[in-house]
Structure formats: C-alpha cells, structure tokens
Write a structure and sequence with these properties.
17 helices; globular; six-stranded mixed sheet; 349 residues; five-stranded mixed sheet; 2 domains
Length: 349
C-alpha cells in the first residue's frame, strides 16, 4: 500500500528535492507543499536552504507538491510525508475519523484565503453566489470548503446553488475569467496577485470573520512529534529564520529564491522587472507572516482559541460532522525551542 501511494504521489505531483548537505537518514524531512504550483511565496524555504540553515540544523529537506491540503493531510496519515503546510479543515475532518495529526507551528498569522471577483463585478454579498460558477485551484483545496461554507452562511445550498470548478494555474484562470466562464474565485492571496499580473483586475472580498480564523500550519502525526521532536524543532527553526530574513530583506530573499528554484527566474527579459513583479507576491505573504498580533512574540506560536472558533464555525454549517477539540489537535510545546536562534543572523545580508 505504501509503495502504491508513493508511486501515485510521484506520478501525480512534481517533486522538488533541494540539494542540501549530507545528513543521516533519521534527519530527513519529507515536506508537503499543498499546492500544485509555487511562486516566490516559497521564499522562506529557499532562504533557509541558501543560507545553509537547514544544514546547520542537521536537516535533510525534500519538498513535494500536492493539489491541496486534503491531499497533504492524507499523505501525512499514511506516513509518506513527515510534515506538511496544511489548512485547518482537513485536520478537523481526519480527527473525526480517528487520525491523530497535530499543528505544532503556525506558519501564517492570519487567513490567506477568501473570495475574489473582477473589479467591475456587481457582487455585494455571499447571496450573490447563487447560480454562479466558483473557481478553485483544485478540488482538494481549502477554497472548496470555504466556498461551500460562505454560501451556507447566506442561506444557500452549497450542493445545488453553486457550481465549483477547477480553474488551474493563474494564467489559465485569467483566461476563464476573461471569457466569463468563471465569475467568482475561492483561492488565496498570492494566487490572486499572480492572476492580476496577467492584466485581470480583481476585487478581493473582505470578510473580518474569516480573517480572524487560522490558516496553514505545520502539521505532523502525533507519533512523529513524539519520536522526532528534535528533527521537527530543527526544521521549523530553519524555516522561522528564513521567514524573519524574508521580512527583513525581501529583495535578497527573491534573489535567493531564483537561485534555489531556477524555474521561477525569468529565462529572458528584464530581471529587475521580474523582481519588482514578484515583490508584490512576497509582500502578500509577508503580511501573513508578521508577528503583529498583540501578545505574539514567537515564530510559529499557535492560537488554540482561533482554531477552536474555526472548527466550531465549520461544524455550525455542517462542514464538520462533529465536535472537534482544538486543544487535542494543536501544541505549543516546541515553540520555545524553535525560537532559539541567533537573531543577528537575520540582520546580515
């Protein structure tokens, strides 16, 4: 079964193995990036690689891409991944099925998801979703859950009143929007910025309630957290250092990302123009990384109350089929150790 899952994963997604230094087998971290594509939003990992912080923390890091958080969560459950950057919804769903996975590091401080429409759209409330086609990045993405949830809040039937379709990569999504095939998107911040780079102007629907809910976090099996605590601490510490560096030196972070992920660097044209364009994407992600909430001073600290509020909200609209206890699905036990690094390294270019 494990072999079939791995073969399917390798056939169905692109695997990117980062060329880090030699490390013992027990220090390998197989990490799931829960989107089929990536952009400079992946800079926190690229910087940690380029600066040697994975190697310094004795981590042998490999990254695999998936269609969405549901796929990532399933591969955590089967043991094919050690850690993944997962949104809360599949964590709650799998918990009700007896799967013991846990958040040990909040990567984003606020939700990166939400709806968007074209700049001239008449869309005003979620009730306007009725009869519309909603575009998502994949059917395993949080965009599907979110679209159904907000439709339900407006009194719509999420199964019959809206139609959800996969729109693909940003450029393909832009084509579908221009043709009028899709009127509403349920995707995320950096995807919207990439769509706008094609010339399609979007209006992001602001929802204060959604913004207070948690977003993607590092998740591992309870057993992995117990048995490989030091490895997870070292991995998350390197990422925390990379995150802090991106905020301090965004331009240098983009340049490092181009080096680690050459496919993101323009093969022709003006590199300076590309950096300026990618800066908008990185700034989107930086806004979700910043430690600017009252009382939050450590990278990765988990707001258990926010997770509980979100799980309760999902249950209220029947998107979770039972009560989920966030205290059983989150932990802050590793945070103090993760934050033990030389802050002076971050200020150095």
């Amino acid at each position: 079964m494990a072999r079939r899952v791995m073969l399917s994963m390798l056939a169905g997604c692109m695997a990117v193995c980062l060329p880090v230094g030699q490390a013992s087998a027990q220090n390998k971290i197989r990490f799931g990036w829960c989107s089929n594509t990536y952009s400079v939003a992946i800079a926190q990992f690229a910087v940690a690689q380029k600066k040697g912080w994975f190697k310094d923390n004795n981590v042998d890091f490999s990254l695999f891409t998936f269609g969405g958080s549901i796929d990532c969560a399933r591969n955590i459950a089967t043991g094919e991944l050690d850690v993944a950057l997962i949104s809360p919804e599949p964590l709650g769903i799998l918990a009700l099925q007896g799967v013991k996975e846990k958040v040990f590091y909040s990567n984003y401080r606020r939700s990166i998801f939400g709806l968007a429409v074209t700049e001239d759209s008449p869309f005003k409330t979620y009730a306007d979703m009725k009869g519309q086609t909603i575009g998502v990045t994949s059917m395993s993405s949080v965009g599907v859950t979110l679209a159904r949830a907000v439709a339900t809040t407006a009194g719509l039937n999420p199964q019959t009143d809206i139609r959800i379709v996969v729109t693909g990569e940003p450029a393909q999504t832009a084509v579908l929007i221009r043709r009028g095939d899709v009127k509403i998107l349920s995707q995320f911040d950096t995807y919207y910025t990439q769509i706008e780079r094609t010339g399609v102007k979007l209006r992001r629907i602001q929802d204060p309630e959604l913004k207070r809910f948690p977003s993607n976090a590092f998740v591992a099996l309870d057993s992995t957290i117990e048995k490989r605590r030091a490895d997870l601490v070292n991995f998350a510490r390197a990422v925390a250092m990379g995150t802090a560096y991106c905020i301090e030196h965004p331009r240098e972070a983009i340049e490092m990302t181009y080096e680690v992920y050459p496919s993101l660097k323009p093969s022709s044209g003006d590199v300076e123009q590309a950096i300026a364009s990618d800066m908008a994407i990185l700034k989107d992600r930086i806004e979700s990384w910043r430690l600017d909430k009252p009382g939050v001073e450590q990278w990765g600290s988990v707001d258990v109350g926010a997770f509980q509020a979100y799980f309760d909200w999902l249950q209220k609209f029947d998107l979770l089929k039972g009560k989920v206890d966030a205290a059983q699905l989150t932990t802050n036990e590793l945070i103090a150790e993760i934050n033990r690094f030389d802050k002076g390294l971050i200020t150095e270019r």
